[in-house]
Design goal:
Elements (H helix, E strand, L loop, with lengths): L1 E3 L3 E5 L8 E6 L5 E4 L8 H12 L10 H18 L7
Antiparallel strand pairs: 1-2, 2-3, 3-4
Length: about 90
């Protein structure tokens, strides 16, 4: 995946949905490469936030409040309806 802006571009290395590296290219500068080792199954940040909230006695994350989660699910449900996608348990 490549993200292009007015001052350069970022190339997210394959596989882009679970990248381990990216390269940043800017005008008049050498390319910079960054590596991000993958840990866990991809949900480690979410799991860590849940544990942080539980340990501090919070019932809701300030990073992802319940109303935002519900809003995202409503959008996904609307899209599924438009596509005619139904899950086996529905």
């Amino acid at each position: 995946a490549i993200i292009t802006g007015t001052q350069g571009r970022m190339r997210i290395h394959s596989p882009w949905w679970r990248p381990v590296a990216m390269t940043v290219s800017r005008e008049s500068k050498s390319d910079e490469s960054f590596e991000f080792p993958v840990e866990g199954n991809g949900y480690e940040y979410e799991a860590q936030e849940v544990m942080d909230c539980l340990r501090s006695g919070k019932l809701e994350s300030p990073l992802m409040p319940l109303n935002e989660s519900l809003s995202i699910m409503e959008t996904l449900d609307t899209l599924r309806g438009q596509w005619g996608l139904k899950y086996p348990m529905e």
